[in-house]
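Hi R.,

Here's the chain you asked about this morning:
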Amino acid sequence: MTEAGRQHLVDAPLVSPAPKAGLIDVFRRRYLLRMLVQREISARYQGSFLGLLWSYINPLSQLFIYWFVMGKIMNRGTENFAIHVFCGLIIVQFFIETFNAGTRSIVRNKGLVQKMAVPREMFPVASMLVSFYHMGPQLVILTIISLISGWTPNPEYLAGVVLAMMIIALLGTSLALMFSVANVFLRDVSSFVSILTNFVRFGVPMIYPYILVDARFGWFAQFYLLNPIADAVLLMQQAFWVGTTNDPELIHATHIPGNLWAFSFLALGVSAVMLLLGQYIFKRFENRIPERL
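And the predicted structure, written out as tokens:
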């Protein structure tokens, strides 16, 4: 080999071409992320005659069930009970779908994980964005039903809707990152997560009003508000359900905790810390993912 050829040799260890900046690299590659989200959405409605219309039919059917069964047959005492439940259902489904789909995302996309040099965090993040996409039709239906019921939008409370979505997006993605790695090493994790999420509906004021929690537990009810998902549900109910009742001021005073905003911003901070923790755990085990798939 000539002297000129030897000058181009580099004595360095082999380095994986996969990006190493984690979530930062995910959003640097927005084109790939958008393609992955579109692929997930297309796969869900592939071969379906109604396609995207199912995103409206499904939440409408659930709203009707809660209105008829809970509101008419069981005659629950909560005013506009169907809207009360639907506000919580939107947030709960956003979280559950993000958590469940995110947990399975690495294993489900193992072909892409093994063949493409992409940040592997992209798959749990894409699951969250797909869940957020499906939240859109539910918000449209909730807005229309609320307007029909006499709701007047309040800019301050609508800002709470954005805050609620941020809390769930951060929290859901953080748990998806942690459990997607665990699911690679032990496939039973996805089944465990499915069971775990069954309890979420009962840990938030969705099928029961917060006033019952306050009445039963008094001062200890504030520990209930340490649940970020409960805060997000209450923010949604404050923005939509309260405005559909006959006396919004009274309902707000009795059914919405006065320190909700403080707890909600605390929940946002906790969710952000959880996301950093999820990223750290994901990076610790990321190099072992291909060999376990």
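Residues 15 and 69 are 60 Å apart (CA to CA).

Let me know if you need anything else.
M.
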